[in-house]
Amino acid sequence: xNSETMQMTTEHAKQKSRGQKRHRGKPYYRPYVPYLFLxxxxxxxxxxxxxxxxxxxxxxxxxxxxxxxxxxAFVGLxxxxxxxxxxxxxxxxxNTAMYAVVTVAGQMIIGLTLAIxxxxxxxxxxxxxxxxxxxxxxxxxxVSFLFVYLFSPGDAGLMNFVLMRTGxxxxxxSWLANSNTSWIAIYSLxxxxxxxxxxxxxxxxxxxxxPELYEAAAIDGAGEWHRIxxxxxxxxxxxxxxxxxxxxxxxxxVFISVLLMTNGGPLHRTEVALTYMFDEAFxxxxxxxxxxxxxxxxxxxxxxxxxxxxxxxxxDQDLEY
Amino acid sequence: xxxxxxxxxxxxxxxxxxxxxAGAIIAVAPLLYMASTALDGVAFVQPxxxxxxxxxxxxxxxxxxxxSRNFGRAFxxxxxxxxxxxxxxxxxAATMAYGFARFDFYGKRVLFGVLLIMIMxxxxxxxxxxxxxxxxxxxxxxxxxxxxxYSSGPLAFNMFLLRGFFENLPRELEESAIIxxxxxxxxxxxxxxxxxxxxxxxxxVFSFLGAWDEYLLALNFLTDEHLRTLPIAIANFxxxxxxxxxxxxxxxxxxxxxxxxLFVFFQRYFIQGITSGSVRG
Lengths: 321, 281
Prior knowledge:
Strand content of chain A: under 5%
Structural class of chain A: mainly alpha
Order of helices and strands of chain A: HHEEHHHHHHHHHHHH
CATH topology of the largest domain in chain B: MetI-like fold
Number of domains of chain A: 1
CATH class of the largest domain in chain B: Mainly Alpha
CATH superfamily of chain A: MetI-like
Radius of gyration of chain A: 26 Å
Low-confidence stretches of chain A: 1-23, 314-321
Mean pLDDT of chain A: 85
Oligomer: heterodimer
Number of strands of chain A: 2
Shape of chain B: globular
CATH architecture of chain A: Orthogonal Bundle
Radius of gyration of chain B: 24 Å
Helix content of chain B: over 70%
Number of strands of chain B: 0
CATH superfamily of the largest domain in chain B: MetI-like
Shape of chain A: globular
Largest interface: A-B, 110 and 101 residues
Strand content of chain B: under 5%
CATH topology of chain A: MetI-like fold
Strand order of the largest sheet of chain A: 1-2
């Protein structure tokens, strides 16, 4: 027993030096032990995540009936064909992509700017980080109602009040009554809620840059802007890519804010992919159609995620200095 | 350094500080507006001019919120569901993570690959099949059923988080326990789990919050009024009393304050959780 473990330990040391973690000797545990560790979690995950994913594909080939007693008819690819010619679907996809582009750009620019400034400031770093992060921890349901209230029609709504006081607008705007101004409210919420998240990640990356690099650049006489453009940004470029892709994935899943602020209206003009899926499935009971729509969206998101791994490559840090 | 560049530096620092303050105001003003509306007492018209600080503090809206039959119940339901989800996610994710981090077994790579792929698929696109599955298993209108679905969502990602943590713990700790004749379960429970406490806390806090804030599954899974969770109760205030914003925001604040406290007190774990996602390879 003792010599066996001793042998294992030395073998281990050898493997470690090769950077491998595989046991070569007789393991100290019985062969079924690993499965006991995995089983509970795996069972739950298979039932509620893996199986639903496959089940969804199956549902999408049917004119699915949820009401007991009705039989679901197999329709093959008809749901997918219908999607291709569904104008509301294309509008919803277009709106979703637009939402992702606008809010991701806003969150990244503001988040990066704030991170650079917080990193520079000498006092109250933690205070600012906490404050900027508050919108992130506030639930989507709450902030969606909050923004409906902020963008209230009439002159008592905070947004109208501020804009009229500063002379930006003359008349109060009924923000959520038409699609263009609705988007302003929805985009603002997306950017406001997410900027703190981007900021925290950028700040962590900035804090990982050794200060000697800045000192060297200062001695070389590099100006403030130069240092940011040619030193900071290239050094945190992997983090920038990570934030970009993570926010894009999140942007394509925009849902609760639109559902609670406009519910896709007026006349489907502010519909996004998931509100349309939700309306088709749980509103019109077209579960097969909704399932097909979900699948298409999942594919779009996975393609975006795949780009992530492609761009981020193998390295896991920005360390290239 | 020269005196001029020093005072320039000071001016720049002041400007930066002011810009950050302006940003902070934008970040918190909507939240203050909400708090002020909730604390301002019952009003059926929006006060003009809008106030970020309430004129007088009154808990009328909160009293009304908790007087409505199901709000207190919703608070308890949410608390129970969120705690149960946090416990389930941390225990399942930790055991799986340890299994992948420290053992070799047949099928390891395949299973790991499947979980890796599944991480990319956003949970919300599974709403339809999860709903139908819950219906078929008679788990609609059941809080334990909701906990099961809530726990499955963040499981894969948290497993990866913890696996990375376990892999970085030195093996010598386990090896000396093996020499002492400890079995794998004792090693996991007595040695590895306590060492992983910081990472476990991160997972627990995030899964608690995820369940606390969840809206869509709760909306579709729970139809009995007494089973509803906080986000549903808040949305109902909005639906029933569309002009009574004080009530909606009193309910909202009740839901938000615990999350903000959790964030302020466990900030370290939040930051760790958020940034560990960004350095995952």
